[in-house]
Amino acid sequence: MAIVDRLLLGDASPGELGQELGLPSNLLAHHLKLLDQVGLIERSRSEGDRRRTYLHLRVQALADTMPTPLRTAPRVVFVCTHNSARSHLAAALWKRHSTVPTASAGTEPARRVHPRAVAAARAHGLSLTPARTSHIDDTLRPDDLVVAVCDNAHEQLGSLAPDRLHWSVPDPTRTGTDDAFADALSDLADRIDRLAPAVRPPGGSDDRDRVLPAP
């Protein structure tokens, strides 16, 4: 259950899970094997360090499970490598589902937001205008909740924002197709649906009662 709870809001490598939960590798491998056999987890190879594997919870198998509020944060910052697609899409989706402020940034920002990301957002009633790329050093505050939405950013952040969440969302710019951007947006939307109810602003007020419905 601890493994499921950990993966409910973000992905993790087996090594990260073992360290966070204090499980020896043989016991962790046993539990992961059982979860794999019943179809609760799936594995993906990192797009950054190909030696790393990330575990992803198959939430469709837990359709009635919803996390209770687990975190307080004055702001949620979505981070990807180039801050040109996934992080901007995540921030736009977050604004639709939560009143907790949000921002996005990159570890190696591109010069502009990808046009297909803008188009994908527009097709789903979201706006990325005016959106500019920014570096994490110019964006991040000490008390932000950081969500790395790509493997490269998660691995590059290292000890920076050690309490961050990681979402292993494939990079749509690798193929550059409309379908790839639509898939990334759908993946992010599913994850934000789970995370938004679990994050409250400091002070303990429950913002879930004030979330605006999606248009």
Structural class label? alpha/beta
Strand order of the largest sheet: 5-4-6-7
Low-pLDDT segments: 206-215
Mean pLDDT: 89
**Number of helical segments?**
7
Radius of gyration: 17 Å
How many β-strand runs? 8
SSE arrangement, N to C: HHHEEEEHEHEHEHE
- The CA-CA distance between the termini, in Å, is 35 Å
Give the overall shape.
Answer: globular
Strand share of the residues? 5-15%
Main sheet attributes: strand count, strand direction, barrel closure:
4 strands, parallel
Helicity range of the residues? 25-40%
What does this structure look like?
Helix 4 (86-97) crosses helix 7 and helix 5 packs across helix 7 (178-195). The chain is an alpha/beta fold and 215 residues long. 35% of the residues lie in helices and 14% in strands. The strands form three sheets. It has a four-stranded parallel sheet. The chain has a two-stranded antiparallel ribbon with strand order 1-2. Strands 3-8 form a two-stranded parallel sheet. The chain has helices at 2-9, 14-21, 25-37, 86-97, 115-123, 151-157, 178-195; strands at residues 41-45, 53-57, 71-72, 76-80, 102-106, 145-148, 165-166, 199-200.
